[in-house]
Each structure stands twice: as structure tokens, then as C-alpha cells.
Design brief:
Number of strands: 18
Helix content: 25-40%
Structural class: alpha/beta
Distance between the termini: 18 Å
Oligomer: single chain
Shape: globular
Mean pLDDT: 96
Largest sheet: 8 strands, mixed
Number of helices: 8
């Protein structure tokens, strides 16, 4: 494992008023396209790892728009999906991959899938570039911070906010920060009432769409707008078009 890029979103598609998704080129916000190009060794095999092992229709829809966006932006020869339908071939698919995409989705569901196929161990020896989006990026941490995101989760006393992740980084991100600023979940303010209290126990990094973090050679660098969240306080640590070595 050489390089891992954790994004909030690659902005792969647009949605119309009916929710239909239309792929487009994903652009070069904060140099993300250049960063990907500089770390891809071959453009043969693209592997899309799902956010749930048992939702094939949703997986195929999201994989399809991802593949089309990459075909428009940075085409690969072959595109494959890893989910519950071919989980027994996970090691083989990862071994032959040149690019591994950890997609977004429901964080606990994806985390369970990753742990069910023992992804942490089988992905260790890959030479592929690994790119995470949203939940896929959050699951890159060793101990994953998993805030509630669905109705009822923040009220469930058994909901687990710390999960076992892939161990690529110690950074715990909250992606799509701009979308959560005014969000309400279970009649609670998402940031102020749900996330900020957790920051007394764990440091969190808020990132917006277009921001990403590169983990390489034991060094982590943030590119774009990001905020450190610790002890209930939010502090800007990087801005659009800027970068900062985090650790």
C-alpha cells in the first residue's frame, strides 16, 4: 500500500429534481485530479468496493455513475465491483487492481462489510492507489468515528460511535461539513448537539466537498478547506487552494 487519498466527494455526477444522476468529469478541485494522475501506475483495473454487501441494485447504480465519470475524466480498461456477490474473490480482485475506490454510503454498513471480508488484512499488500469517498474515507481510520446519520440512530443507546477501521490513518474526518452545518437529526442540531460533544473524547477533522487528505510514507497532508474540532471548539486549519502537512 503506497498512497491513500481520502476525499469528502469527487463530485462525480449531478442530480436532477427527480433524483436521477448524470455523470460528468470530476474536475481538479485543490489539485485532486493531478494528485490521482501522479499516483496511478497503470490504467488497467479499477475496483469499486461497495458500501453494503447486500444491496446489489444500489451498488450497481453508484458503481455505474462512478465508472462513467472516470471514463470521461481518467479512463481505465476494466471496471469491477466488489460486494457480497463476489466477496469470496476479494483477495484476487484486490491483488489485480490498479485503482481501488472505497465508495460512500452508510458508514456502519460499509464498516461491517469491510470487517466481514477482512479487508484490513487483504488490502495491505496492494500496489494500487486507494481513493476513499465520504464513508469510504472515514473507514480508513484505525478507530473510526461513526456519528449517527439516520433517523433514530442518535436515540439508540446501543449505537456504536467507534468502529474498527482499515488503519491507514489516525485522522477521523467528518465529510460534507457544509451540508451538516444546519442539519437536524432526531430534533437535535447535528453539529452542536451530536458531534461537538464527542470532540471532548476524540479529535475530528471537518472537511468540505473538494477537500482531500493524502496519506503517503507515514505523512498526511490536507489539501483544501478543513477544520480541526477538539474540546468543543472548531478551528480552521487549511483553506481552499492551500495545503498543510498534518502529521
Amino acid at each position: 500500500m503506497d498512497t491513500v487519498i481520502m476525499t469528502s466527494s469527487l463530485n462525480l455526477y449531478e442530480k436532477d429534481e427527480l433524483g436521477n444522476r448524470f455523470p460528468h468529469q470530476f474536475g481538479n478541485d485543490n489539485g485532486i485530479l493531478d494528485m490521482i494522475k501522479s499516483n496511478v501506475k497503470k490504467y488497467d483495473n479499477f475496483l469499486f468496493i461497495a458500501s453494503a454487501e447486500d444491496k446489489p441494485e444500489a451498488t450497481d447504480m453508484y458503481a455505474g455513475v462512478t465508472f462513467e465519470s472516470f471514463d470521461l475524466t481518467l479512463p481505465f480498461k476494466n471496471y469491477k465491483v466488489l460486494d457480497g456477490r463476489n466477496a469470496d474473490k476479494a483477495r484476487e480482485l484486490i491483488k489485480e487492481a490498479d485503482f481501488i475506490y472505497l465508495c460512500g454510503g452508510h458508514l456502519p454498513s460499509q464498516n461491517a462489510f469491510f470487517n466481514n471480508i477482512n479487508l484490513k488484512d487483504i488490502i495491505r499488500d496492494t500496489d494500487a492507489l486507494i481513493v476513499g469517498a465520504s464513508a469510504g474515507s472515514m473507514n480508513c481510520a484505525g478507530t473510526v468515528y461513526c456519528p449517527p446519520e439516520l433517523e433514530g440512530e442518535s436515540l439508540d443507546p446501543n449505537f456504536q460511535i467507534y468502529l474498527k477501521g482499515l488503519g491507514f490513518t489516525n485522522i477521523n474526518i467528518l465529510p460534507h461539513y457544509e451540508k451538516y452545518c444546519d442539519a437536524i437529526l432526531d430534533d437535535k442540531r447535528y453539529i452542536e448537539d451530536i458531534v461537538l460533544p464527542d470532540s471532548f473524547d476524540i479529535e475530528i477533522l471537518f472537511i468540505v466537498d473538494g477537500t482531500y487528505i493524502v496519506c503517503r510514507d507515514g505523512k498526511e497532508t490536507i489539501y483544501g478547506l478543513a477544520y480541526r474540532v477538539k474540546d468543543g471548539k472548531i478551528e480552521k486549519v487549511c483553506d481552499v487552494g492551500k495545503s498543510i502537512i498534518w502529521s
